[in-house]
Amino acid sequence: MARLAGKVAVVTGASKGIGAAIAGALAAEGASVVVNYVSSKAGADAVVAGIAAAGGEAIAVQGDVSQAAEAQALIATAVDRFGRLDVLVNNSGVYEFAAIEDVTEDHYRRQFDVNVLGVLLATQAAVPHLGEGASVINISSAITHVHTPHAAVYAGTKGALNAITGVLANELAPRRIRVNAVSPGFVVTEGSRAAGVVGSEMETSLVAQTPLGRAGQPDDIAGVVAFLASDDARWLIGETITASGGIR
Predict the structure, then answer these.
(1) What totals of helices (H) and strands (E) does the chain contain, helices first?
(2) Which of 28, 78, 137, 236 is deepest in the core (most CB within 10 A)?
(3) Tens of pLDDT along 164-189?
(4) In CATH, what is the architecture of 8-187+220-242?
């Protein structure tokens, strides 16, 4: 039996990359999925079409989770459409690398607004609708301990997210809502290609540090998220699971 049959999941930033793979994995486990996007309607629609073609159920919903009203509207749409909410995956994120001399207020605020404030606002909107056994899963990054140069701000956002995960795990545990995080290593996505990491010396260095000897793929992360969303992970709370092929 599918592990998430009858459940409803919202995946933020799910029009491509890791988010798209997570949406597909949750749908394959039986969940009805809300595929959130900010600007790529075509990408979100393609994810929904792929889920439907595989026999699943999904809808695409636009919304910028770094804006409180839009985060609230996203969750409200999910509940209106499917009648409940069981899983929230906080995947929306942006990253920009910059040497410390080049860090600006805009560089800082854009990343913290999406990567940190967006998680808080989406979770705040979701909590009133989450019942016993629900799961919140935050997508962090192994960059918090790999300490890649020029990533001070991005790594800072993910360090904050790890702390938030632990705090909310304890805060929401009395309601039997589990909060955990997944911390990917280097993953080949549209974003890492656009940033010039794929095919660069940085990719070569990261793969060389990875005991399994390859870059990650979105599906490598999606399977871990599907596990955390399921009852198989019922005894896991406040964990940050590093899914990095062994990179430390």
Answers:
(1) 10, 7
(2) 137
(3) 999 999 999 999 999 999 999 989 88
(4) 3-Layer(aba) Sandwich (3.40)
Least confident of 148-152, 167-171, 195-199, 219-223: 195-199
Residue 189 in contact with residue 17, Cβ under 8 Å?
A: yes
Q: Write the Ramachandran bin of 22: left for phi over 0, alpha for psi from -120 to 50, otherwise beta.
A: alpha
Of 180, 192, 248, 235, which is closest to residue 217 (Cα–Cα)?
A: 192
pTM over cut 0.90? yes
Q: Catalytic site residue 154?
A: yes
Would you kindly state where each structural domain of the chain is located, as residue ranges? 8-187+220-242
Supply 148's token pair: 């890649």
Write out the two tokens for 185: 């290593």
* Residue 180 DSSP label: E
Token pair, residue 28, equals 């394959």
Position of tokens 């790999």?
Answer: 146
Task: Tell me how far apart the alpha carbons of residues 225 and 10 are, in angstroms, rounded to a whole number.
Answer: 12
Q: What amino acid is encoded at 15 in this protein?
A: S
Instruction: Provide the sign of the torsion angle of the four alpha carbons 24, 25, 31, 36, taken in this order.
Output: negative
Structural contact between residues 123 and 88, judged by C-beta atoms closer than 8 angstroms: yes
Please choose, from the candidates 152, 157, 139, the residue with its C-alpha nearest in 3D space to the C-alpha of residue 216. Answer: 139
Helix 152-172 with 105-112: angle, nearest 10 deg: 30
Query: What distance lies between CA 81 and its chain's CA centroid?
Result: 22
DSSP per-residue letters across 194-232: HTT-TTSHHHHHHHHT-TT-S-B-HHHHHHHHHHHHSGG
Residue length, the chain?
248
